[in-house]
Design goal:
With about 425 residues, the chain is of the alpha/beta class. The chain has helices spanning about 5-15, 40-45, 60-75, 85-95, 110-125, 140-145, 165-175, 235-240, 250-255, 255-270, 275-285, 290-310, 325-335, 350-360, 390-395, 410-425, and strands at about 80-85, 105, 130, 150-155, 180-185, 200-205, 220-225, 315, 340-345, 365, 375, 400-405. It has 16 helices and 12 strands. The chain is globular and about 75 Å long. Bound molecules: pyridoxal-5'-phosphate. Pyridoxal-5'-phosphate binds near residues 113, 186, 207, 208 and 219. Keywords: Lyase, Pyridoxal phosphate, Transferase.
């Protein structure tokens, strides 16, 4: 299928040409680990990567492949590799780009798992992360040196709801020929295609808004096909790979050498492949993504405005509000909607925050994000409880801070629930 169609059409059709054998309309679930070979010659060709085809579902699976093609089309990329979770995708990309002694320059405003991966886990393997301020692109430039292999940020940071100046950061990274990796989980291709702004690799957790029902865990990395890996900075992409009889990734795969590395090295050696059934669930989610995203964003903006006008609310973080410091960047990069996540402070600090959470009736008290249900969490007493007071402040987690993932229910029901819970919090 050609990728000239609109996003809404690609989300329903891209990557699946109807099963020739069964003529199944719906994408089949290929619940299989292995595949028949025609002959020993064909098997040898597959293993030598001389011929494209399925060998083993840790590397490729036809159902997962439909999802990879569909998301690559949506994001405007050339190639995509699916993983067992968003974190597996992010860790896979980091490990494919960095060796011991290399470094990552990342926005400090990150999803919790990514933050601990960069700060603690990769550090133990000799990969250092230097943190920059997503709102000040020059701070990225200050940290880049000749061992920097990846510049990293999220389209909307967590939990601060900051919107980075993407084009400036990309420009700075590309000046040093460093690849730019962007997490598009909270926005999805429906709100922004980071590749259109020069980003080289988009990583995403499919667990969130792509699934939409909180049913399955999965992740994906999409490669733009624009980055030239053959320049000096990435020796693993140009030097012969002894684990593939001297294969040179750049020579064989050109501008999608990273995807090849993710599949034939990361998935081969570390695993973390997506399950076919989960890929099927994500295909289902994708078919309604455009409809849901619109509703999520409308509801979030209305709730943000309602909270801003409420006398028991001390502040609201939502980049769709004119009063928000990230409003201008959000209008530039996210004109179709500013996402479903907002934060607010409630008068009365930690105690009022806890009371609010205990008083909501419609909203669910969970740490998940971005499914169709409205969800609330009080980070100071849950997700960020272990941090010191200063660390909490640095992470934007004030004692009265409540994070909301706004669902697709009727807005009046959401507003009524918040109104009664805020009242209850002040008693
Ligand atoms: C949830 C999330 C992840 C991790 O995804 P999993 O599928 O839970 O591993 C990464 N980045 C962001 C922004 C997320 O919200």
């Amino acid at each position: 299928m050609e990728n000239k169609y609109h996003l809404e059409t690609l989300a329903i059709h891209a990557g699946y040409e109807k099963d020739k054998q069964t003529r199944s309309v719906n994408e089949p679930i290929y619940q299989t680990t292995g595949y028949h070979y025609d002959s020993t010659e064909q098997a040898a060709n597959l293993f030598e990567l001389e011929e494209e085809g399925n060998i083993y579902s840790r590397l490729t699976n036809p159902t997962v492949r439909i999802l990879e093609k569909r998301i690559a089309a949506l994001e405007g990329g050339q190639e995509a590799v699916a993983f067992s979770s968003g974190m597996a995708a992010i860790a896979g990309v980091a490990l494919a780009l960095c060796r011991e002694g290399d470094n990552i320059v990342s926005s400090s405003s990150l999803y919790g798992g990514t933050s601990t991966l960069f700060t603690h886990t990769l550090k133990k393997w000799g990969i250092e992360t230097r943190f920059a301020d997503s709102t000040d692109p020059d701070t990225f430039a200050e940290h880049i040196d000749n061992r920097t292999k990846m510049v990293y940020f999220e389209t909307i940071g967590n939990p601060k709801n900051d919107v980075p100046e993407i084009e400036q950061i990309v420009k700075i990274a590309h000046k040093s020929e460093v690849a730019v990796v962007c997490d598009n989980t909270v926005t999805s291709a429906m709100l922004i295609r980071p590749i259109d702004f020069g980003v080289d690799v988009v990583v995403q957790s499919c667990t969130k808004i792509i699934d939409g029902r909180g049913s399955s865990v999965g992740g994906i990395a999409v490669e733009s096909g624009n980055f030239n890996w053959a320049r000096g900075r990435y020796p693993d992409m140009v030097e012969p790979d002894p684990s593939y009889h001297g294969l040179k990734l750049c020579e064989k795969f050109g501008r999608v050498a990273l995807s090849a590395r993710l599949r034939i090295q990361m998935l081969r050696d570390i695993g973390g492949c997506m399950a076919p059934f989960n890929a099927y669930m994500f295909l289902h989610g994708l078919s309604t993504l455009h409809l849901r995203v619109t509703r999520h964003c409308q509801n979030a903006l209305e709730l943000a405005r309602f909270l801003e006008a409420n006398k028991y609310v001390s502040y609201v973080n939502y980049p769709g509000l004119e009063s928000d410091p990230h409003f201008m960047n959000a209008q530039k990069y996210l004109p179709k909607g500013q996402g479903a996540i907002l934060g607010f402070g409630i008068k009365g600090g930690t105690e009022a925050g806890k009371k609010f959470i205990n008083s909501v009736r419609l909203a669910s008290h969970v740490t998940n994000l971005l499914d169709s249900r409205t969800m609330v969490v009080h980070p100071a007493s849950t997700t960020h409880q272990q941090l010191s007071d200063q660390e909490k402040i640095d992470a934007g987690v004030l004692p009265d801070f409540i994070r909301v993932s706004v669902g697709t229910e009727h807005i009046d029901d959401i507003l009524a629930d918040f109104e009664q819970a805020i009242k209850a919090s002040q008693r």
